[in-house]
UniProtKB/TrEMBL annotation:
Keywords: Cell membrane, Membrane, Transmembrane, Transmembrane helix, Transport. This is Dicarboxylate/amino acid:cation symporter. Coiled coil: none annotated. It is found in: Cell membrane. SUPFAM superfamilies: Proton glutamate symport protein (SSF118215).
Length: 416
């Protein structure tokens, strides 16, 4: 754990330095803020790309090995059913918490936001046009596994990996074992790479934070104080619910789990990408004592179906935009919107701003001006920090809970 603590403190120092450097540039050299932001942001870009580089092969190898090693198709079905029940329940709870709190706190009625130029939202609006069931199906089923690898489409890789893993499980040991062993070695080799890549995380954090503070300064916190206050309160309520459920299932081991995943949580918070910590989360959950077959099966599914923070944000932000424009929505309309979000959000990648595209598409469906997304774009970075961290917590709890239900959670996790 000593190495973990060093990394954790290095990230904290980078976070503080990032705010300080960004603030200094914004206050002392405002004319240089834009080019400075563009250049220092490259540190964050390098870190994210290093992680993205290993996402596809790691998901593929761990999931195939996990399913093939199960060999019992009934077990695959049982674990998958438990996971999906958790995902659906957690998603509905997250959406309802966002819906209830945005109606109670009404940030859109009390906050006087400056009307943003809709041009800033054009790219998001364009990318959400033409959403249909056909697009949804195409997003799930890969046309080519190589295309899915090239574009890091986690859900498509998951679909192919499950089918391939089930096929290997039914092939017989004589044929399957050499392939399983090869993929197992590759998976552990990639996990070894994770250790090297994570030491670049502090630089990525420094670059990402310094860039956003240099460009927006500290004023952005004042202008959007109410919205941020209400949203972070809602995230706090969601955390409380998740941790209570986690404690009911894991008992005192919940605190050990939180200690294990503190670095992934902080990295997700700083880089606004839950995808960035996927490899490290796999490693820490196995060290915590989760069965590696369960981890490799559930965690990739969770990254497509169990984004609790993003789910809560979708209802919160959608109703907030409606409030800003003075659009009153009935309880029936809001429940319908919740169910639409429940369906359309499945499979969104755990990358920055993915949920905004879904919000724009949903607003269009319910007669809310999609240009309203421009109102929250300036502070979306800070909201994304909280929801990315919450996504990581939700997936860690889901994996640990299913491991416990399967009787495959070791009392004492060890080093890999």
């Amino acid at each position: 754990m000593k190495g973990q603590n060093k990394l954790f403190f290095a990230i904290i120092i980078a976070l503080v330095l990032g705010v300080a450097i960004g603030g200094f540039v914004h206050l002392q050299y405002p004319e240089s803020a834009e080019p400075f932001s563009k250049n220092i942001k490259l540190l964050g870009t390098v870190f994210i790309r290093l992680v993205q580089m290993i996402i596809a092969p790691l998901v593929f190898t761990t999931l195939v090995v996990g399913i093939a090693k199960m060999s019992d198709i009934k077990m695959i079905g049982r674990v998958g059913t438990k996971a999906m029940l958790w995902f659906i329940s957690a998603s509905l709870v997250s959406l309802f918490i966002g819906l209830i709190l945005v109606n109670w706190l009404e940030p859109g009625h009390v906050t006087k936001l400056p009307i943003q130029d809709a041009a800033s939202a054009e790219e998001l609006i364009k990318s959400s046009k033409g959403f249909s069931m056909e697009d949804f199906v195409k997003h799930i089923i890969p046309k080519s596994i190589f295309e899915a690898f090239a574009t890091n489409e986690v859900l498509q890789i998951v679909v192919f990996s499950i089918m391939f893993g089930v096929a290997l499980a039914n092939l017989g040991d004589e044929y399957a074992q050499p392939v399983i062993k090869l993929f197992d070695v590759i998976a552990h080799g990639i996990l070894k790479m994770v250790g090297y890549i994570m030491w670049f995380a502090p630089f990525g954090v420094l670059g990402a934070i310094a860039a956003v503070v240099a460009t927006n300064g500290f004023e952005i916190f004042k202008v959007y104080a109410i919205y941020l206050r209400d949203f972070f309160f809602a995230i706090g309520v969601l955390w409380l619910v998740l941790l209570l459920v986690g404690y009911m299932i894991l008992g005192n081991r919940l605190f050990e789990l939180l200690r294990r995943i503190k670095s992934p949580l902080l990295i997700a918070f700083s880089t606004t990408s839950s995808e960035a910590v996927f490899p490290k989360l796999v490693e820490e959950l196995e060290r915590f004592g989760c069965n590696n077959r369960v981890v490799s099966f559930i965690l990739p599914l969770g990254y497509s179906f169990n984004l609790d923070g993003s789910m809560m944000y979708m209802t919160f932000a959608s109703i907030f935009i409606a409030q800003i424009y003075g659009i009153e929505m009935s309880i029936g309309q809001q429940i319908t919107m919740l169910l639409v979000l429940m369906l359309t959000s499945k499979g969104i990648a755990g990358v920055p701003r993915a949920s905004l595209v879904i919000i724009v598409a949903t607003c269009s469906m319910f007669g809310i001006p999609p240009e309203g997304i421009a109102l929250i774009l300036p502070i979306d970075h800070f909201c994304d920090m909280a929801r990315s961290m919450t996504n990581v917590l939700g997936n860690a709890l889901a994996t640990s809970a299913v491991s416990k239900w399967e009787g495959q959670l070791d009392n004492h996790g060890g080093d890999m």
